[in-house]
């Protein structure tokens, strides 16, 4: 069974925005999209969850429950994985607690993925020395999570244009649009903050010259 | 109120044509200091402009406060050459100052030269064993090295002397959570609640920790701390309201209805549910369809995402 995973540009941009908004914190969130029988996962969106601590259950549980409700009601997407970005400047590793959370997040999915932001590769990404700053893990049956690179797999960008993602990221960052991204913890502190970030994608696309409105 | 002021002055700085005005730069940096905001790239950028063009606008005292603020921001933003130049200026003005030496140590930390940073701090501690700054830097050093256990040791030692440092206790709690030592984290929040009995977020955090540890007694204790947080926030804390419901879903004891306290235990979840629905209806009606099924599950005794 060949495993493949592709991601929508918007989903990855949201993860980068979440990390950029809280550069001194570890952040995490849920990936939604579709997962097919044959082993392909399509990440369509990222929903940011926490930024103050990833080790306490309540915010995670309530957030996850709301996201599950969201996927049931919209019907078009399911929870397909988990993402995490560590506070420290290190490589993209998935520590034991992260694995546990990923297990919890994806317990209803046979096929699931984890994206970990590799901060060292992120530095190279910003300097245009590397394309993909994300480390991809896939569910290895009941054995846990396996680095996709171990099997020669890697994260594919839907429109295959990492350069475009970089440009959008820079524009977003320069315009401080990452500050307009809200995660679930922010929503808990202020109900008016939208953890679905419905306006985010279009507000960023609007900034790039040559992008249709 | 001040946060709005900060937003305002930041916006006017962003929209400035050419070099921004001195008074705006000074006001921005002052507000950042007052509000303890951490936005280092912005502070470094505007601090640089201020120091380069408008040094004469500042009093002697504020001038060097700004130097220190900008140096720390530059280090945090990893603008090392710039940080070095600011620290050099501080050193020239205050040779042999402990405060300046700790900035040098921070430079070595930022550059990844941990042994040299440690040397600087131990040097200071040799002659000033209770120097707050140096003791705190030893904690940060271990964190940067990826040694939370050593950082915890150092921070405990610091708190032995400076037990009233609320920020210290908060950081210790964070460190304990990082190494998944929930019980010790709980103890830290107990200290914080004692020091700040009016701060609702410490009650909520404490309850979060107990809930995470789990077990019947902890769910009950957590529930009462969430209830206290609800009281302190006049029913406005979503974390506390959801917390009460999550605890109630785990508590399966049958309750005697005659007892007034037990009645409260039954009424509390219902009151919390209603409060949540009110808040969502008013502030986030688009989320109601996601929240209603969750509230129903919790009320039915199925803890969310168990």
From TrEMBL, chain A:
<dbReference type="InterPro" id="IPR037518">
    <property type="entry name" value="MPN"/>
</dbReference>
<dbReference type="InterPro" id="IPR005366">
    <property type="entry name" value="EMC8/9"/>
</dbReference>
<dbReference type="GO" id="GO:0072546">
    <property type="term" value="C:EMC complex"/>
</dbReference>
<protein>
    <submittedName>
        <fullName>Chlorophyll antenna size regulatory protein</fullName>
    </submittedName>
</protein>
<dbReference type="Pfam" id="PF03665">
    <property type="entry name" value="UPF0172"/>
</dbReference>
<feature type="domain" description="MPN">
    <location>
        <begin position="5"/>
        <end position="143"/>
    </location>
</feature>
<comment type="similarity">
    <text>Belongs to the EMC8/EMC9 family.</text>
</comment>
UniProtKB/TrEMBL annotation, chain B:
<dbReference type="InterPro" id="IPR039856">
    <property type="entry name" value="EMC2-like"/>
</dbReference>
<dbReference type="GO" id="GO:0072546">
    <property type="term" value="C:EMC complex"/>
</dbReference>
<dbReference type="InterPro" id="IPR011990">
    <property type="entry name" value="TPR-like_helical_dom_sf"/>
</dbReference>
<feature type="domain" description="EMC2 TPR-like">
    <location>
        <begin position="101"/>
        <end position="209"/>
    </location>
</feature>
<keyword id="KW-0802">TPR repeat</keyword>
<comment type="similarity">
    <text>Belongs to the EMC2 family.</text>
</comment>
<comment type="subunit">
    <text>Component of the ER membrane protein complex (EMC).</text>
</comment>
<keyword id="KW-0677">Repeat</keyword>
<feature type="repeat" description="TPR">
    <location>
        <begin position="98"/>
        <end position="131"/>
    </location>
</feature>
<keyword id="KW-0472">Membrane</keyword>
<comment type="function">
    <text>Part of the endoplasmic reticulum membrane protein complex (EMC) that enables the energy-independent insertion into endoplasmic reticulum membranes of newly synthesized membrane proteins.</text>
</comment>
<dbReference type="InterPro" id="IPR019734">
    <property type="entry name" value="TPR_rpt"/>
</dbReference>
<keyword id="KW-0256">Endoplasmic reticulum</keyword>
<feature type="repeat" description="TPR">
    <location>
        <begin position="166"/>
        <end position="199"/>
    </location>
</feature>
<dbReference type="Pfam" id="PF22890">
    <property type="entry name" value="TPR_EMC2"/>
</dbReference>
<dbReference type="InterPro" id="IPR055217">
    <property type="entry name" value="TPR_EMC2"/>
</dbReference>
<protein>
    <recommendedName>
        <fullName>ER membrane protein complex subunit 2</fullName>
    </recommendedName>
</protein>
């Amino acid at each position: 069974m060949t495993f493949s995973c592709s991601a929508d540009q918007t989903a990855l941009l949201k993860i980068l925005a979440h990390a950029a908004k809280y550069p001194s914190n570890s952040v995490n969130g849920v990936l939604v999209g579709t997962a097919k029988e044959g082993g392909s996962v399509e990440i369509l969106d990222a929903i940011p969850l926490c930024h103050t601590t990833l080790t306490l259950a309540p915010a995670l549980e309530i957030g996850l429950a709301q996201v599950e409700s969201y996927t049931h009601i919209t019907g078009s997407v399911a929870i397909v994985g988990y993402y995490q970005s560590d506070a420290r400047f290190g490589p993209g590793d998935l520590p034991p607690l992260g694995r546990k959370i990923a297990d919890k997040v994806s317990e209803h999915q046979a096929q699931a993925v984890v994206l970990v932001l590799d901060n060292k590769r992120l530095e190279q990404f910003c300097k245009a020395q590397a394309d993909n700053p994300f480390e991809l893990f896939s569910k290895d049956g009941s054995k846990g999570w396996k680095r996709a690179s171990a099997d020669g797999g890697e994260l594919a960008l839907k429109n295959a244009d990492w350069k475009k993602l970089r440009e959008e990221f820079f524009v977003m960052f320069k315009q401080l649009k990452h500050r307009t991204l809200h995660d679930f913890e922010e929503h808990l502190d202020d109900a008016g903050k939208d953890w679905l970030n419905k306006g985010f994608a279009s507000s960023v696309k609007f900034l790039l010259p040559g992008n249709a409105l | 109120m001040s946060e709005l002021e900060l937003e305002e002055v930041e916006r006017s700085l962003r929209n400035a044509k050419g070099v921004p005005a001195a008074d705006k730069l000074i006001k921005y940096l002052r507000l950042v200091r007052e509000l303890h905001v951490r936005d280092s790239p912005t502070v470094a950028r505007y601090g640089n402009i201020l120091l380069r063009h408008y040094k004469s606008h500042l009093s002697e005292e504020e001038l060097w406060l700004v130097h220190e603020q900008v140096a720390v921001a530059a280090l945090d933003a990893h603008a090392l050459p710039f940080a070095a130049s600011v620290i050099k200026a501080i050193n020239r003005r205050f040779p042999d100052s402990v405060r300046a030496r700790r900035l040098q140590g921070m430079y070595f930390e930022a550059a990844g030269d941990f042994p040299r940073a440690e040397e600087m701090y131990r040097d200071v501690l040799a002659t000033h064993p209770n120097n707050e700054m140096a003791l705190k830097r030893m904690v940060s050093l271990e964190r940067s090295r990826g040694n939370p256990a050593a950082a915890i040791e150092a921070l405990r030692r610091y708190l032995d002397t400076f037990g009233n440092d609320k920020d210290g206790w908060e950081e210790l709690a964070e460190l304990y959570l990082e190494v998944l030592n929930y019980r010790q984290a709980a103890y830290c929040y107990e200290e914080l609640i004692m020091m700040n009995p009016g701060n609702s977020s410490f009650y909520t955090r404490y309850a979060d920790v107990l809930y995470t540890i789990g077990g019947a007694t902890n769910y009950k204790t957590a529930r009462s701390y969430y209830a206290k947080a609800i009281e302190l926030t006049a029913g406005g804390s979503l974390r506390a309201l959801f917390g009460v419901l999550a605890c109630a879903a785990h508590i399966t004891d049958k309750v005697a209805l005659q007892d007034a306290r037990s009645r409260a235990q039954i009424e509390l979840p219902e009151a919390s549910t209603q409060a949540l629905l009110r808040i969502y209806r008013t502030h986030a009606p688009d989320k109601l369809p996601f929240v209603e099924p969750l509230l129903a599950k919790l009320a039915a005794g199925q803890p969310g995402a168990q």
